[in-house]
């Protein structure tokens, strides 16, 4: 099977796990919609975002990654929107036949888990020689259906300072079928003009104006006239805004509607006082140590970090041909596969907001390409010991279990199931030697074995290992045995 051609943006490690409050919407409110213009957004920044024009006679327009006419109707539990021109996600070839993955429908209903709505993306796999659908799937998201006319007014003085505008830059690498988004730094002048600095340091001059709840920018780039329209979704204390952006006149592969964080650069810089500690981003943690060691999410490969003269943090991913990613190279055979540059834009009482730029190889040992620049939100605390297991770092991890004279690697992985959900499986000794499923319950690791369920509970942690007790189901920590779980994060190379 050939690799699927993906046309949606490569988010990589730049995804910001930020939750926003949503507006409650009842079934009766959904059914009372006769026409209108709406933005459909998730409660975070990684969910799909779309612009919907619902006209009379159950017709209208959809804009997301593409524009498509739609037919819409009310259902027993909400609204249904059918795309007359399905939105392609990718394609692949199998036994000489081309298959296409596409979004063909959306459903919107009141959320059972939170305020706001639950919206469902309906996808299918189409065999292109017969146009038959060979498989379908659904994925649901919690979010908000925002009437365009009710979105917030622009009451912020944009002419003060420099602003980070999300996802303005869009780069598509046709040779690799990959894309990247980049935030730009923009200054707004009182005369209705401004300038922005792009990811490649080019400068564009723009015209801007505010009209009710819209901030509009017009500028020229690569011989084309661009137009961006920003609307406010939510505010971030004193730090900035979450916005949706409507894009016109970009590349054919560029999404038409995007969302992100618009922040004013407070001029803060990184220092040991604000950088060293545990950075928390939803359930994921990143540890920065004062000896310049960086460990992502407890068990993943370590790296080293440093301040540059601009007060930013720089990291590199160093790859050894046999050992894989390493924090330092043990010989002269390594190369730098990607670099990360972190700039502290803003801080408030709750968190700090960090712009992260990634430049990466797209083939092993190849040249670096710009792969994105986005803002992530982190809570920074003094170093936190690891007191509980978590799926976030057990989804693809190798850990060696050590007890007495025994030392055995265990391989943990998420695997897609036949129903489209994920199964959590573990192997012993070798990746192909699957033992069974694992689960995390109340921070304890449960392993399926032929003799029943074994439970592992963390007793103590360091940055390279965990001390745990292991006992049978219905037992206690005191009744079990002790062992060490050694991470494969490369910290031993730093000694």
Could you characterize what this model shows?
The protein has 495 residues and is mainly beta. It has 4 domains: 12-150, Beta Barrel (Lipocalin); 163-264, Lipocalin (Beta Barrel); 272-381; 391-494. Helices cover 3% and strands 59% of the residues. The protein is built from 3 helices and 33 strands. It has helices spanning 27-31, 272-275, 391-394; strands spanning 36-42, 50-54, 59-63, 67-75, 78-94, 97-110, 117-127, 132-147, 163-173, 178-188, 193-197, 203-211, 214-221, 224-236, 240-248, 257-264, 277-281, 284-288, 293-296, 303-307, 313-320, 324-326, 335-347, 352-361, 368-381, 396-403, 406-416, 422-428, 434-441, 444-449, 452-461, 465-472, 481-487. Strands 1-2-3-4-5-6-7-8 form an 8-stranded antiparallel beta barrel. The chain is globular, with a radius of gyration of 25 Å. The two termini are 44 Å apart.
Contiguous low-pLDDT stretches (5 residues minimum) are 1-17
Please give the alpha-carbon distance between the first and last residues. Answer: 44 Å
CATH class division of the largest domain = Mainly Beta
Task: Please summarize the sheet with the most strands.
Answer: 8 strands, antiparallel, barrel
Instruction: Please name the CATH architecture of the largest domain.
Output: Beta Barrel
In terms of DSSP E residues, the strand content is over 45%
**What is the count of structural domains?**
4
Counting DSSP H or I runs of 4 or more residues, the number of helices is: 3
What is the subunit organization of this protein?
single chain
CATH fold naming of the largest domain: Lipocalin
Provide the structure class: mainly beta
Look at the structure and give the mean pLDDT: 90
**Overall shape:** globular
């Amino acid at each position: 099977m050939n690799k699927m051609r993906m046309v949606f943006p490569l988010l990589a490690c730049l995804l910001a796990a930020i939750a926003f409050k949503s507006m409650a919407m009842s079934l009766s409110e959904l059914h009372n919609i006769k026409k209108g213009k709406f933005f459909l957004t998730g409660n975070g920044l990684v969910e799909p975002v779309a612009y919907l024009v619902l006209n009379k006679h159950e017709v209208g327009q959809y804009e997301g990654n593409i524009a498509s006419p739609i037919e819409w109707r009310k259902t027993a539990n909400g609204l249904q929107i059918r795309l007359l021109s399905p939105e392609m996600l990718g394609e692949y070839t199998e036994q000489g036949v081309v298959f296409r993955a596409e979004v063909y429908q959306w459903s919107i209903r009141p959320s059972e888990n939170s305020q706001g709505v639950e919206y469902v993306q309906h996808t299918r796999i189409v065999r292109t020689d017969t146009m038959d659908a060979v498989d379908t799937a659904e994925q649901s998201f919690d979010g908000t259906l925002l009437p365009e006319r009710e979105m917030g007014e622009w009451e912020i003085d944009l002419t003060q300072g420099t602003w980070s505008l999300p996802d303005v830059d869009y780069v598509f690498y046709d040779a690799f079928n990959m894309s990247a988004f980049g935030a730009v730094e923009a200054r707004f002048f009182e005369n209705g003009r401004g300038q922005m600095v792009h990811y490649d340091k080019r400068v564009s001059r723009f015209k801007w104006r505010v009209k009710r709840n819209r901030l509009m920018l017009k500028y020229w780039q690569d011989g084309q006239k661009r137009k961006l329209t920003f609307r406010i979704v939510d505010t971030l204390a004193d730090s900035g805004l979450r916005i949706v952006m409507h894009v016109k006149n970009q590349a054919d592969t560029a999404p038409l509607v995007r969302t992100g964080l618009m922040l004013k650069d407070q001029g803060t810089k990184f220092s040991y006082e604000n950088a060293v500690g545990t950075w928390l981003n939803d359930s994921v943690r990143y540890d920065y140590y004062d000896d310049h060691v960086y460990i992502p999410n407890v068990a993943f490969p370590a790296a080293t970090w440093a301040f540059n003269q601009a007060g930013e943090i720089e990291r590199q991913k160093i790859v050894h041909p046999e050992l894989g990613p390493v924090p330092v190279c043990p010989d002269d055979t390594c190369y730098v596969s990607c670099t990360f540059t972190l700039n502290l834009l803003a801080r408030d009482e709750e968190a700090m907001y960090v712009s992260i730029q990634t430049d990466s190889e797209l083939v092993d040992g190849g040249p670096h390409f710009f792969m994105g620049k986005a803002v992530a939100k982190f809570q920074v605390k003094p170093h936190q010991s690891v007191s509980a297991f978590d799926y976030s770092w057990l989804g693809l991890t190798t850990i060696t279990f050590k007890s007495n004279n025994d030392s055995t690697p265990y391989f943990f992985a998420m695997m897609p199931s036949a129903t489209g959900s994920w199964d959590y499986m573990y192997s012993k000794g070798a990746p192909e030697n699957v033992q069974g499923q694992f689960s995390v319950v109340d921070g304890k690791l449960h392993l399926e074995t032929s003799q029943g369920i074994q439970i592992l509970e963390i007793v103590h942690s360091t940055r390279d290992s965990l001390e745990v007790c292991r006992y049978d189901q219905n037992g206690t920590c005191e009744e079990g045995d002790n062992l060490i779980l050694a991470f494969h994060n490369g910290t031993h190379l730093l000694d």
